[in-house]
From TrEMBL:
<feature type="domain" description="FAD-binding">
    <location>
        <begin position="6"/>
        <end position="164"/>
    </location>
</feature>
<dbReference type="Pfam" id="PF01494">
    <property type="entry name" value="FAD_binding_3"/>
</dbReference>
<dbReference type="InterPro" id="IPR002938">
    <property type="entry name" value="FAD-bd"/>
</dbReference>
<dbReference type="InterPro" id="IPR036188">
    <property type="entry name" value="FAD/NAD-bd_sf"/>
</dbReference>
<dbReference type="InterPro" id="IPR050816">
    <property type="entry name" value="Flavin-dep_Halogenase_NPB"/>
</dbReference>
<protein>
    <submittedName>
        <fullName>Tryptophan 7-halogenase</fullName>
    </submittedName>
</protein>
Amino acid sequence: MTIEQVDVLVIGAGPAGTVAASIIHQAGYKVKVVEKQQFPRFVIGESLLPRSMDALQEAGFIEAIKEKGFQQKYGAKFVKGDATCDFTFEEQFTPGWTWTWQVTRADFDKTLADTVEKMGVPVAYETTVTDIRFNGSDSVTTVTDKNGQQSQIAARFIVDGSGYGRVIPRLFNLEKNSSLQPRKALFAHTVDERRSMADEPNRITAVVHQKGVWIWIIPFSTGVTSVGFVGDPEFFAAYPGSDEEKYRALLEAEPYTRERFRDVPLVFEPRILESWSATTDKFYGDGFVLTGNVTEFLDPIFSSGVTLACVSAQTAAKLVIRKLKNEAVDWEKEYMEPTMQGVNTFRSYVMAWYEGTLDTIFFKKDADPVIKGQICSVLAGYVWDLDNPFVKNHDTALKRLARTIELTEKLKSSSEIE
Ligand code: FAD
């Protein structure tokens, strides 16, 4: 068997893999990407956050993405019954990008992979990693192509960006259960001819359908809109029939979606995803680093996935370059801790969303603009800005704020009664 020799092998050509590959390649190293599927391929994760733009820029992808004409995104709207809460990223507390895109991931990911290939990084499609042997930090990886043909790649370092494939955690038994309860999504792309009924398309909308169940509405520049329902698996079990019957019944059951999406043509049959939350104990080891979804994926509610993928890949790539130069790298301090800082901030917001704490905050009338700007920063993905009290104290600040709002409302209504 022939053995190809590279400096860095990147597993997966999603956002994590391509951002890492580009940055390491630009530093002058020989990089190769292996990707299990043929592109374009479907993957969910269509709403980006402004914080991802800096990583996409450093990877040299912004111009190529701009050329594709994806829908620009300037904020996020939350809806519950008649109450709405609009966040415009211009209001964010942390300086940085104040817009991003809403993308069909098949096209977006292909744009990133084509761009990295044009830069000179080979991307081997329909090539699956099936085995890795480490000898210190050097490794030999076995890959299998679509014809079942095996070959080997020797690398000085591996970046695992295999997303839901979780290649290294699976091969080396590093998998750990998530602290979040399992949830399920039923979604499709709809031909959204009645889009003008809503104040869109330059933002996404999250609708609270009932406690623990919400709907995403992500309009694309093509006139197609992604609509998905997320909730406990038992919630969906109460709806009979095929997935399409369930999907249409759910669109009808929610007043916010009923008229706009009644009888809409679907671009594809509704799809189901479930139990997506996953993690692992350690995001690095001798000769490898995990990036993107392989580190930890929480929940779709705050569109954190692609941003965490891009930022973790950006951080990892710079550390890999230092490692290849034989410089000392403290992976725990310089990679694990900052990555967990971002993940844990989002985790607090995800938990507050499902517990209803965020309903109290989002749907309060006359919100304090300073606090709104600080929370807006988190929703824009600026989860590493420790000057923001809603990042620094992410686990307590939301609870405290919700309790203050509830107490003030109680006092107000009791003084009205008196
Ligand atoms: P991926 O994009 O999954 O790419 C990994 C690549 O690795 C794939 O192309 C795969 O084929 C390849 N691969 C896998 N195994 C192997 C192997 N053995 N050998 C070679 N290649 C391999 N995120 C957002 O930011 N916004 C959203 O609105 C959003 N909505 C979501 C909704 C739902 C219901 C779910 C479940 C997730 C959502 N996400 C969202 C999360 C998003 O899907 C992921 O976080 C994101 O795709 C992670 O990017 P990645 O580069 O880490 O992995």
